[in-house]
Amino acid sequence: MSKIHAEHVFTSESVSEGHPDKVCDQISDAVLDACLEQDPESRVACETLVTTDLVVISGEITTNAKVHWEKVARKAVKEIGYTDSSVGFSDDQCKVFICIHSQSPDISQGVTAGQGLHREQGAGDQGMMFGYASNETKELMPAPILYAHKIVEELARLRKTDPKKYRFLRPDAKSQVSIKYKGGKPVRVETIVVSHQHTPDMSRSWLEGVVRQVSKKVIPAQFMKGNIKYHVNPTGKFVVGGPNGDTGLTGRKIIVDTYGGVGSHGGGAFSGKDPSKVDRSAAYMCRYIAKNIVAAKLAEKCEVQVAYAIGVAEPLSINVDTYGTGAIEDDAKLEKIIREIFDLKPATIIKTLGLKTPSKNGWSYCKAAAYGHFGRNIFPWEKTDRVDALKKAAAKYMKCCCGTC
């Protein structure tokens, strides 16, 4: 969406917490949360695999925390809703294999302050990370991915809060939302696709009614006009699902986790990684910066990219793109403002966003592992507390002296 077309349709998908890959993401992040709660200095790179009645937890973990890995995994599976052994995957019947060892000392010395070639805490890996924001929704998120998330999230809420009425629904589900844009702005929903795992006795027409009801609830009325096409369980049925229907792995839903295909992606996944891994922490920081820029009305759309070398604290580069919507004529000047206001060293990112102590601040990484890491104000990287500082810094580059034009 780097170009503003006269008219086009853009589609994004989401998956529910019961999707096999999302089960893995949540288990990996539940392990991370458990480690950080006891030991904020934990180094965690946790990968999970799930399939029929099996959970495999592997990776590199160095921590002083005493964590019962199996209990953490079973609790995560139970909270998702896999409690019925007849579906081929359940919290009390699945086998759990643990294959964990400590972090490589070669990596550790590069990301521990006072060790390695550089004295400061360096990045936990090389690579580039992106953050994005747009004023097309109040959450400052692209509309297609935002509403795709909201549909499956609301279906899960109904399944859990009213299990008698929605007894037909099982945890695995996917959604897809196609939205028509005119002049770069969303104008209406074109198509909604939902595939939802269900019991054998469910009526497909019943599910279609529920999907229509949920869609109208979570998507603003201004977009729900005209002849919207619905495709609900378009194969006819979806009884076999979850890890019994498809093997899941941590980190396979990176576009679902971010912006639904809008903007760029550096390729790194989030879940199971402690914040010394810039794949995660720097991507959160880039969203924080981009969202504050859009909230400050310095751009209608904004993408921020940073790049790092493993073991090096300072980012190698910072790039900002406002897609021609910036209030400042030259995006290079906005880059200077970013450097002036935001410290992008890994240690400072972690401190700024409180990434080592989520439980003390009322959030969890596991919560981020389903329904998107961005667009929900429960997370610290969604704050817009740098708006005034950005406006003040931008004033010298504006044609008007007030800093808000």
Number of helices: 12
Whole-Å distance between the termini? 25 Å
Poorly predicted segments: none
Strand arrangement, largest sheet? 1-6-7-8
Structural classification: alpha+beta
Order of helices and strands: EHEEHEHEHEEHEHEHHEEHHHH
Describe this structure in words.
32% of the residues lie in helices and 22% in strands. It is α+β, with helices and mostly antiparallel strands and 405 residues long. The chain has a four-stranded mixed beta sheet, with helices on one face. Strands 4-3-2-9 form a four-stranded mixed beta sheet. Helix 1 (20-38) crosses helix 2.
Features:
405 residues, alpha+beta, 4-stranded mixed beta sheet, 11 strands
What can be said about this structure in brief?
The chain has 405 residues and is an alpha+beta fold.
How is the secondary structure organized here?
Blueprint lengths: L6 E9 L4 H19 L4 E9 L2 E9 L6 H12 L14 E7 L3 H7 L15 E8 L8 H19 L7 E14 L2 E14 L5 H15 L10 E4 L9 H4 L2 E2 L4 H4 L20 H18 L5 E8 L8 E5 L9 H11 L4 H8 L11 H4 L18 H8 L11
Parallel strand pairs: 3-4, 7-8
Antiparallel strand pairs: 1-6, 2-3, 2-9, 5-10, 6-7, 10-11
